[in-house]
């Protein structure tokens, strides 16, 4: 493993940083306040070939490696965690199952427009009664002639209502339990598919989170991804990649918090000197940087393992768990360094603190990551 990024990776990271500073940073606070979806930013990201970054050019992608894509998630999230997860859910969770298990017909019809950024994707596994226990879902997909008929409700779906294409998991054979779970591509505009409740969230407020409601929604049989009964494996393997994206999102948030803390510590004068001259503040900054770098190494290691085609569930679990908890802690310390100002909405660290928390929860809570990591040790 060598994390001296290649020249190309450094360039991608720098481009993403410049793009984020110019286009994302100026609207991040407004997105947080209003909960608006940043359509104009996603359109520009498509123009820069970001939306299909780790996919081959023949499917409209940029043909970059996963680590390069992870660098983009990190830099975008450093300016706006909402935009980071909109992007990561699209790229890691919606496009991947079609690329890895979809038929050529599905790739041409859905993967190409997803990679070109002409369409936005979402991934729908969670249900009201099936969160951590994803195998307990009750959505059904009943075969009927050359179609499947979908019924049920998904909840907490990122990009709900703004996505054009949804990866939906439903039981084709409920009697088989999780072995009867299958994955489908579902178009947003189908009759019988409605967007339910929009969640009002603590953080990542520019990212839409909604229910999806299916009532006798008929989808073509050809929209099955892979084979019937393979849905759980597809979901879990897709989430491995997604978790590296969440780790990168956490890195971006944590880096932003550290940047703000350093700036504030140099500017804020108490007892006649900047607070940066106090050892208590210096030690906090030193620990923040150390945790951030450790999280970065774990995250890049997981991305590199994916690029090498290895099974990387453990690496992804460690990266997601460590980076999200580091981000949560670093944002807390950044607020501490800001004193009372850190608690006031005008200061960026207040938003970062709220945005960081979700990284410990979605795409498998950190309790799940501990199960994944310990499971790989005890096998
Ligand atoms: C903003 C947001 C966006 C999301 N986006 C998506 C999305 O795009 N697609 C999607 O499918 N889902 C999405 N989710 C759902 C998310 O992945 C789930 O919320 C998460 O997996 C946890 O499920 P739950 O909320 O039902 O919590 P529960 O499963 O009810 O867990 C509650 C608590 O119990 C713990 N727990 C549960 N089981 C165990 C166990 N066996 N051992 C130890 N502890 C356990 C959990 O770790 C947690 O602390 C999103 C959620 C949010 C909040």
UniProtKB/TrEMBL annotation:
Molecular-function GO terms, alphabetical: short-chain fatty acyl-CoA dehydrogenase activity
Its name, as the record gives it, is Acyl-CoA dehydrogenase, short-chain specific
Cofactor(s) needed by this chain = FAD
Q: Give the EC class as a word.
A: oxidoreductase
Q: Give the family from UniProt.
A: Belongs to the acyl-CoA dehydrogenase family.
- EC? 1.3.8.1
User: SUPFAM superfamilies, alphabetically?
Assistant: Acyl-CoA dehydrogenase C-terminal domain-like, Acyl-CoA dehydrogenase NM domain-like
- InterPro entries (alphabetical): Acyl-CoA_DH_CS (IPR006089), Acyl-CoA_Oxase/DH_mid-dom (IPR006091), Acyl-CoA_Oxase/DH_mid-dom_sf (IPR046373), AcylCo_DH-like_C (IPR036250), AcylCo_DH/oxidase_C (IPR009075), AcylCoA_DH/ox_N (IPR013786), AcylCoA_DH/ox_N_sf (IPR037069), AcylCoA_DH/oxidase_NM_dom_sf (IPR009100)
Keyword Flavoprotein present in the record's keywords: the answer is yes
Recorded hits in PANTHER family, A to Z, give: ACYL-COA DEHYDROGENASE (PTHR43884), ISOVALERYL-COA DEHYDROGENASE, MITOCHONDRIAL-RELATED (PTHR43884:SF12)
Q: Which PROSITE patterns match?
A: ACYL_COA_DH_1, ACYL_COA_DH_2
Q: Where is the Acyl-CoA dehydrogenase/oxidase N-terminal domain?
A: 6-118
Indicate whether Secreted appears among the record's keywords: no
Q: What Gene3D superfamilies does the entry give?
A: Acyl-CoA dehydrogenase/oxidase, N-terminal domain, Butyryl-CoA Dehydrogenase, subunit A, domain 2, Butyryl-CoA Dehydrogenase, subunit A, domain 3
Domain of life (superkingdom): Bacteria
The protein's UniProt keywords, in alphabetical order, are:
FAD, Flavoprotein, Oxidoreductase
Segments forming domain Acyl-CoA oxidase/dehydrogenase middle: 122-217
Q: Which residues form the Acyl-CoA dehydrogenase/oxidase C-terminal domain?
A: 229-376
């Amino acid at each position: 493993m060598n994390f001296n990024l290649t020249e190309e990776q450094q360039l991608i990271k720098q481009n993403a940083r410049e793009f984020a500073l110019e286009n994302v940073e100026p609207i991040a606070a407004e997105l947080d306040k209003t909960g608006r979806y940043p359509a104009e930013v996603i359109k520009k990201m498509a123009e820069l070939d970001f939306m299909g970054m780790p996919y081959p050019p023949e499917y409209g992608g940029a043909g970059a490696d996963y680590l390069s894509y992870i660098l983009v998630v990190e830099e975008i999230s450093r300016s706006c965690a909402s935009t980071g997860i909109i992007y990561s859910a699209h790229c890691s969770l919606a496009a991947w199952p079609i690329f890895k298990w979809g038929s050529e017909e599905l790739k041409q019809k859905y993967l190409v427009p997803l990679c070109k950024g002409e369409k936005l994707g979402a991934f729908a596994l969670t249900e009201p009664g099936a969160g951590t226990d994803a195998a307990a879902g009750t959505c059904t997909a009943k075969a009927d002639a050359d179609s499947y008929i979908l019924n049920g409700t998904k909840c907490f779906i990122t990009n709900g209502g703004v996505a054009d294409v949804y990866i939906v998991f439903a039981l084709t054979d409920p009697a088989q339990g999780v072995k009867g779970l299958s994955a489908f591509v579902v178009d947003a505009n189908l009759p019988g598919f409605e967007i339910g409740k929009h969640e009002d969230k603590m953080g990542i407020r520019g990212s839409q989170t909604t229910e999806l409601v299916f009532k006798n929604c008929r989808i073509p049989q050809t929209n099955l991804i892979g084979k019937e009964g393979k849905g759980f494996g597809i979901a879990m393997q897709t989430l491995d990649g997604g978790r590296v994206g969440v780790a990168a999102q956490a890195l971006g948030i944590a880096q932003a918090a550290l940047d703000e803390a350093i700036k504030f510590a140099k500017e804020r004068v108490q007892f006649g000197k900047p607070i940066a001259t106090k050892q208590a503040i210096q030690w906090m900054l030193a620990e923040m940087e150390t945790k951030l770098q450790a999280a970065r190494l774990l995250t890049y290691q997981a991305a590199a393992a994916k690029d090498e085609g290895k099974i990387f569930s453990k690496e992804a679990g460690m990266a997601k768990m460590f980076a999200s908890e580091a981000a949560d802690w670093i944002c807390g310390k950044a607020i501490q360094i800001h004193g009372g100002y850190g608690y006031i909405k005008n200061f960026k660290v207040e938003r970062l603190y709220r945005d960081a928390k979700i990284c410990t929860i979605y795409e498998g809570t950190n309790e799940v990551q501990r199960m994944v990591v310990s499971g790989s040790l005890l096998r």
